[in-house]
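task queued by scheduler; priority normal; single chain, no ligands, no partner chains; default sampling; output format set to structure tokens
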Amino acid sequence: MDGKRKLGLALCGSYCTYQKLFAAVPALAEDYELFPIMSDTAAETDTRFGRAADHIRALSALCGGKQVVTTIAKAEPLGPTQGLDALLIAPCTGNTLSKLAHGITDSAVTMAAKAHLRNGRPLVIAFSTNDALSGSAESIARLLNRKNVYFVPFGQDDPVRKPCSMQADFSLLGAAVEAALEGKQLQPIIK
């Protein structure tokens, strides 16, 4: 597509952030050919934030009508045959952070990350989790030290009512991907 770089866009089940993500995707589509991926939880679960089928349709439309990858079998070729320039997981849940930190591959998103990282290309994580400063802290620390793994800058999203919760700044998705493609972590990482 017009010589654009290829960016995998993988969604996990932090449904409350989908509106922010979907608002940011058109700017990403200006610079990248987007390849949509969803975890099975994201692709199958209806919530108070919307129906899964509607999210799949919206993501596909935002990614130029491409079919959304929702299975491990369809995600595995993204590494050897698609040759993505970068992979962005946005939103990335605490559950997926833990799986990535411990090498667990049990969803389309974790398989896409594994297949992508074996090519030595950047994985960019925009997490949203209520336990970033508790249960997910160890996983975040592990991934901060992992080669070719970068983070979209993040901060506490509601320090009074949810003191352990943190969320990526979705307005910085494009800047974080650009920095990662240059081998750099966008700073400051904690806002």
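post-processing summary
- The chain has a mean pLDDT of 94.
- The domain at 5-181 is CATH 3.40.50.1950 (Rossmann fold).
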